[in-house]
Write a structure and sequence with these properties.
Layout lengths: L4 E5 L7 E5 L14 H20 L3 H19 L6 H5 L7 H23 L7 H12 L36 H15 L7 H15 L6 H15 L11 H6 L1 H14 L2 H40 L5 H9 L4 E3 H8 L3 H13 L4 E2 L8 E3 L1 H8 L5
Pfam family, one: Fic_N
GO molecular function: ATP binding
InterPro entries: Fic/DOC_N, Fido, Fido-like_dom_sf, Fido_containing, SoFic-like, WH-like_DNA-bd_sf, WH_DNA-bd_sf
Length: about 375
């Protein structure tokens, strides 16, 4: 058996090669001298993000939007075409062409929130992952692929049209998968002294290598990173979402994991993962600072005007979670007349806070454009 596992041939009439992973941690153990500088940089960047997340008063707003951004990007890695603006668009139900992609991303958001709540009741385990997968796959494309159940048949990874014989990678058989999952669960709750960021890299690789579901493995595997780091208290809030950097480096992401299987080179995969964490933490820190500054400026603009009613202020606070709005939607949400809402929107336009994104006077959509521009960076397909 190699350092990371072994390739085996099945004994069926139409035989094929599959990969059976070795249990974690790697043996021989990781060369931490090779990784120490990269780990130090990642820890420092994450420390700054943690500090910021503890002192920013609007952190719940940022988390609300970051979960949506991660859902978009993680789904885009799997081929979904929806953008962040699509998810936030109050009129998206009219766009039948994009609706299926949007529904998949909305499911990811639901699954993420569900997982964060479930983590307060259950430890990370096979049962936990199945519950999250069930939420992820409910009612969308792939729902015929056993939501909430580990696979009972062989799967494989490769270009469209590939077979188990021609696939780029064939995960372990069902029997080997069950053994590998049990070993992974033991590792997650074990006493490994490696830094939790390094452990997170190994756990993500191992989960993707096992590929226990017929569909949705990538999305569950990336969510597992956050859940593990929260459990280990490496991050204080669920704000480190790495799909943006993984999407930017998608080929290297897959190639580094494949190299572990073929050559046993865990070090280069862990190094890549830690670099992704560093870039992600720095980017998140920068974005939160930009958004926080914008919110302070715009709240001050509204405060200086001393409007008679709180409608303008209330709509502004609503925009922080829903930066694309319609007059109809606002009237319904606040239970106010169209005249009041129209006047408030006009005042927000005059302050340069919102702009109309549709033509004409019917079904108008307004955007908190500067806010959305900061959030939307790199989520366009």
């Amino acid at each position: 058996m190699g350092r990371s596992g072994r390739y085996e041939e099945t004994r069926e009439r139409h035989s094929y090669r599959y990969f059976a992973p070795s249990p974690l941690p790697p043996n021989p153990e990781l060369n931490m001298n090779e990784l120490s500088n990269t780990l130090a940089e990642a820890s420092e960047a994450l420390g700054r993000l943690n500090m910021l997340s503890e002192y920013i008063p609007d952190m719940s707003i940022f988390l609300y939007q970051y979960i949506r951004k991660e859902a978009v990007l993680s789904s885009q890695i799997e081929g979904t075409q929806a953008t962040l603006e699509d998810i936030l668009d109050p009129e998206i139900a009219e766009n039948k062409e994009k609706l299926k992609d949007v529904e998949e991303v909305v499911n990811y958001i639901t699954a993420t929130n569900f997982a964060l709540e479930l983590a307060e009741q259950l430890p990370l385990s096979s049962r936990f992952l199945k519950e999250v997968h069930k939420e992820l796959m409910a009612g969308v494309r792939g729902q015929e692929k056993n939501p909430g159940e580990f696979r009972h048949s062989q799967n494989w990874i490769g270009p469209q049209g590939s077979t188990v014989a021609t696939a780029k990678y064939v995960p372990p058989t069902v029997q080997e998968m069950e053994k590998a999952l049990s070993e992974l669960e033991s590792y997650i709750h074990g006493t490994d002294t490696l830094h939790p960021l390094v452990q997170a890299a190994l756990i993500h690789y191992q989960f993707e290598t096992i590929h226990p579901f017929l569909d949705g493995n990538g999305r569950v595997g990336r969510l597992l990173i956050i859940l593990f780091l929260l459990e280990k208290e490496v991050i204080k809030t669920p704000v480190l979402y790495i799909s943006l950097e993984l999407k930017r480096n998608q080929f290297e992401y897959y190639d580094r994991m494949m190299a572990v299987r073929t050559t046993g080179n865990y070090e280069q995969w862990v190094k890549f993962f830690l670099e992704v964490v560093t870039h992600t933490a720095k980017n998140a820190t920068k974005k939160i600072e930009q958004l926080s500054k914008l919110i302070d400026v715009d709240r001050a603009k509204i405060g200086e005007k001393r409007y008679r009613s709180n409608t303008v202020k209330n709509i502004y606070e609503f925009l922080l979670k829903h930066p694309l709005v319609t007059v109809n939607g606002l009237a319904e949400y606040f239970d106010l007349g169209f005249v009041s809402i129209n006047n408030a929107i006009r005042q927000l336009e005059e302050l340069g806070i919102v702009i109309q994104t549709t033509r004409g006077k019917r079904n108008r959509v307004f955007s908190y454009a500067k806010y959305l521009e900061i959030l939307e960076d790199d989520t366009l397909v």
